[in-house]
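Reading a protein record of the kind used here takes only a little practice. To see the layout at work, look at the sequence and tokens printed below.
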Amino acid sequence: MALYWPSEGMLFIADVHLGKDASFQSAGIPVPLGPTSETLARLAELLHVVQPRRVVMLGDLWHAKEGRTDDLVSEFIAWREVHGEVEIILVEGNHDLKSGPLPEAARVIEVKEPHIVGPFALCHHPEACPDGYVLGGHIHPGVVLEGRGRQAVKLPCFWFGKQVAVLPAFGSFTGCGRVSPCEGDQVLIVCEGNVSPARIGG
């Protein structure tokens, strides 16, 4: 669930939320550890396939300060060493601001929103910006598909509006919230590695 700009070799992802499992455990919520490792493995596979020069994370790389355990930080730094040829830019999101700065060894360039690159305003919060077409995250967009037998399933999606595009959450332990696109918006549903257009309006 990423967006790639081939001419610039730039890969965009949003809402990675590393350490969310550890954050829950620190609060006494019994969830299994593992999503952080799974997320990093998926990102490593994506980097291998796409071969970008730069990765822009549209906010919320880490879920919370409590989840930034020594073991998980070490795991991220080790992962970063393997993929050291790729520049990583983090557009600070609300969770990043609460978690605090990353250690220097993480080799992540942290910037404020909006971060302007060409025609795009790179943000965490998906709000219109006069400086460019916004690429954002934050809301973990999803749509609900309903079947004839009243069964329903919520799936993550890319949501492209007139002034703002919202990327689905990349993290393995994030979920998605239901969005209500306007007629004329383009929504691409993500299901089992495939991306398909959804019909809006009409």
